[in-house]
Amino acid sequence: MTVEWILTPDRLSAAMGLLAAYTGMCWGIGAKVRKQRLADEAQGSAPEGKTDAPAVLVVYSSQTGQAEALARATAAMLTERGLQVRLLAAQKLGAELLARYSQSLWLLSTTGEGDAPDQALGFVQGLMASQPDLQNHQSLVLALGDREYQQFCAFGLQVHEWLQACGARSQVVCVDNMDSQSLQDWQGLVTQMHQSLQGGKAGAPVSAPAQDWLQTPAAVPMVLSQRKLLNPGSQGGPLYWLEWKPQFGALPQWQSGDLVSLCVPADPERARDYSIASTPADGSLQLLVRQSTREDGSPGLASDWLCRGMAVGDVLPLTVREHAGFRLGENAGRPLILVGNGSGLAGLLSHIRARVQQGCGDQWLLFGERSPQHDALYGEQLQTWLVQGHLARLDRAWSRHATQSLYVQQLLNREAEEVVRWVERGAAIYVCGSLQGMGQGVHLALQAILGEAQVDAMLASGRYRRDVY
Ligand SMILES: Cc1cc2nc3c(=O)[nH]c(=O)nc-3n(C[C@H](O)[C@H](O)[C@H](O)COP(=O)(O)O)c2cc1C
């Protein structure tokens, strides 16, 4: 099917309005909620809310931030309505703490091929491998996933089954790519739980309409100010650099590692995430987008719109999404080993730029692409940073090199001793790019170089972070 788009100003603003509303509904866990952000409590600290109020535990595990944002919004809503809420990441949950609660909410995404988010590894191998007694415990599980993956919502479903096996009464809602119906169902169930907890209490607040606490529009209309093909003549798909400026006012704020979420007019039902390649100090929001082709040869809807359909000067609502799992966070002071391929350079570039701006050059980039003739992305810029000392090392692997074909995981293996030295020196590892091939290959290489136990420990503690897709 071909969709013809003739963009009159009226149509554009109507489409933008729709997109902004939709994007806001999907992702907008906005300023209001962030202001009330509940700190991640350590195990012993007191929950938020009045001390005689019913208590609820809210547990999350998230790879790209959606489950975490929904958990924060859910916890903030329950706190606002008078419950004592303890919000924490799954890896911080122990059996003793869980046993203290008779109500729990779980917001969990699935990553990889049916896997738990990276930081949940400790929870999976620890608490989930045991069977605490949860008789008289009620739980609700929100399992985030995407039906395009074979093991739909696998991790959320595993936790739901584990809770049941421990004796809890558990209900689960599976969400397909943040579909609004399932999110409404979730809000309905949480509202019911809240009402039953407050049951009959004089002065209990009347519930607001079920939907409203997950909705805060946060999409910003942005103008595509420049677009450039980065790899003319490449055997791979065309890779474009896209620069965006706000249509009105100031740039939205974000940190290196964060994502942008957007819907395109040809597929307004489905939001896509892209790693941001710049920092706000660069003065624009920049993305690297590969124009993709599906198996049947037809163009990928979103990437085709971004790379060819849109004209420079057109406007699209973009939502900046915090990606806590790939930010520098506690690793800000560490040396960095940055590993990636293709459009994954975006997520790594934002970190390099952030560190260049801070005057910190203790970072090593290992990067894979096809050929040095056509795919030397940011070649001059990277070389300049190396010469200026903003990069301590730069190693590139070319998979289609005439004489020295190499993948980035092989490069890691070749540099194994240096990798060990950097890690001993306290380095954190960031990987960005394709999951198939690169992400998995790099993981295996790191296991071979550092040992499985150390890789697991680094993953669980956030010293090894991945943005692979
Ligand atoms: C690399 C990657 C792998 C994924 N694997 C699965 C999967 O195996 N099963 C599934 O149902 N969803 C999968 N998803 C979809 C995510 O679970 C879904 O986008 C979810 O909303 C992300 O939530 P989070 O931001 O909290 O991690 C995957 C997403 C990505 C980016």
Automatic annotation (TrEMBL):
SUPFAM superfamilies: Ferredoxin reductase-like, C-terminal NADP-linked domain, Flavoproteins, Riboflavin synthase domain-like. Its EC number is 1.6.2.4. Gene3D superfamilies: 3.40.50.360, Nucleotide-binding domain of ferredoxin-NADP reductase (FNR) module, Translation factors. It is an enzyme of class 1 (oxidoreductase). CDD domains: SiR_like1. InterPro entries: FAD-bd_FR_type, Flavodoxin/NO_synth, Flavoprot_Pyr_Nucl_cyt_Rdtase, Flavoprotein-like_sf, FNR_nucleotide-bd, OxRdtase_FAD/NAD-bd, Riboflavin_synthase-like_b-brl. Residues 56-191 form the Flavodoxin-like domain. The chain crosses the membrane at residues 12-30. The keyword Flavoprotein applies. Keywords: Flavoprotein, FMN, Membrane, Transmembrane, Transmembrane helix. Residues 217-329 form the FAD-binding FR-type domain. This is NADPH--hemoprotein reductase. It comes from Comamonas resistens.
